[in-house]
Amino acid sequence: MRIVDKQAKERYLEKLRVIKEGTAINPFETPEEKQAIIARLKKDPAFLSEFLFPHYATSKAAWFHIRLAKAVLRNKRIRRLVRWGRGLAKSVWVDIKIPIWLWINGEFVFMVLVGNSLDKAEILLADVQAEFESNQRLIHYFGDQFLRGSWEDGDFRTKDGRFIGKALGMGQSPRGLRVGSLRPNYIACDDLEDKDTVKNPRRQDEVIEWIEKDLLKTMDGDTRRYLHPNNDPWPRSIQNQLEKRHPNWDMDVIEAYDEATFEPAWKEKYTADYYREQEEDGAISARAEYNHKKFLEGKVFTDNLIQWGKRPRLDHFKPIVGFWDVAYSGANDYNAVKVWGLHGFNFWCLKAFVRQCKMIEAIRFMYNYQAMLPESVLIHWRVEEQFWNDPLKDALKEAEKEFKKPLNIVISPKPKVKKFDRLMSKHPYYQNGRIYYDEAEYANNDMQTGINQLKGIEPGYKTHDDSPDADEQAIEYLSQFVVYEGENRNDVQILGRRRNNKY
Asked: CA 206, 211, 215, 221 torsion: positive or negative?
């Protein structure tokens, strides 16, 4: 036996031991008590979790666990993207508790468990297999289901024939998954994303196509359940692309904690101090892993270059500009409107709109932001001349009718320098500490989306650059208003007035 096989066998045997020791039965139980427990297990997923799976249920089930279980039982054609924060037991519920609960309720379950590799899928499926083989309470209340000859790694069938489990690696052909005339009716794609796929949008798209055209098409009966558990800390992932392509699918989004109070979503297991400590170890990475706040580790525009500060008064900026990088349909690119102000020697990012949406939404943002400015503050709206065409003009006219006044937007000449060179030209500003972001916008999704696009800029990048492009052109416009006097770089003249640089 190979060392790898021996280690896998030892892990499985240990799993069986833990399950068996934790699920002892009551030897004095009456037939009436047994039937009462069976009835309750069928109806109450919280009781099922605590009583049948004590080796997993170190804490009582959360409200969102119960909600998901009931939704899956109720809807035989459910399509749900389960986006729960790290540590919220999404895999345990989707891969083990819910499919077994369906079986307990009398359903035939043909589960295909998909991992990002076949080995990973087999490990995940072994957790379900071990329950049927060694869970004393499951055996006591619902019968011994171990079926010799049909109990292989990644492929098993229960003795009653009502539960079939098969493992499948991401991208593998699902053809031939059927057992006789039986086809899969419960598919779980568990944590398909990894450090390699998030860096390869083409590979992500291939997996999405595989899910849509191959995997889902293996189900053809009345019952066709699809669940996709993943937390989502990445700017682009298989799961969030499926969300965009299938707006009718259910989204089950749970952030692990409140970022203001640190109150946990799973109060039965975690405390506020637990998440407070996670942020102390790194707030950005904690919010990415636990609350799906998109996080990208930049190689050129790194985290330590992103400065946050309390912005000066708006009427102390000379001037303020909002630059719009246009996306006509918003299906692939982002409409990015970035508002920047010049204060002293420094450039401040004050507000952001970075979304895959129609142009009218970006224009509404500009109107609404302009409306909240003090009367003494003027903002210069600008858009690159290459976008100045009939679709954009029509969108502006539509907004003008809606807001009953025009948006004064200036056409900016198309830059002559290549985009990558332009974007990199602002890197020294970050290195020299001249770029600040308004700390009040730290938790704003648009601002974080823009920063993640910036961190994706590096030689050969293939990520979205709409927000960094808007940043560069806004900063370039503001830079013409900085006039240096003498040899002291802090002694600058802005629009004819001298200011001492405070920030």
From this structure: negative
Q: Which helix (H) or strand (E) covers residue 445, if one does? A: helix 445-455
Residues whose CB falls within 8 Å of the CB of residue 408, separated by 6 or more in sequence, listed in order: 381
d(CA 158, CA 146): 6
Residue with tokens 């979304």: 355
389-443 tens-digit pLDDT: 999 999 999 999 999 999 999 999 999 999 999 999 999 999 999 999 999 998 7
State how far Cα 222 lies from the chain centre. Answer: 30
Contacts of 391 (CB under 8 A, 6+ apart): 328, 359
Write the CB contacts of 342 (distance below 8 Å, at least 6 apart in sequence). 317, 318, 319, 320, 348, 478, 481, 482, 494
* Span of 31-35, 105-109, 163-167, 291-295 with lowest mean pLDDT: 291-295
- Residues 113 and 228: their CA atoms lie apart, in Å, by 10
- CA 63-64-69 angle, to 5 degrees, is 105
**pTM beyond 0.70, yes or no:** no
Dihedral of the alpha carbons of 113, 65, 444, 448, in degrees to the nearest 10: -20
Q: What is the pLDDT of residue 3?
A: 54
Handedness of CA 184, 190, 195, 197 (dihedral sign): positive
Q: How many CB atoms lie within 10 A of CB 390?
A: 7
- Of 29-33, 48-52, 54-58, 169-173, give the lowest mean pLDDT range: 54-58
- Is residue 346 within 8 A of residue 310, CB to CB? The reply is no
Cα–Cα dist 100/108, whole Å? 10
Digit-coded pLDDT (tens) for 227-257: 999 988 887 889 999 999 999 999 999 999 9
The secondary element (H helix, E strand) that includes residue 494 is strand 491-494
What are the residues whose beta carbons fall under 8 Å from the beta carbon of 58, sequence distance 6 or more? 269
Q: Which two tokens stand for residue 282?
A: 């790194």
- Structural Rg of the chain based on CA atoms: 28
Paired tokens of 322:
């909002």
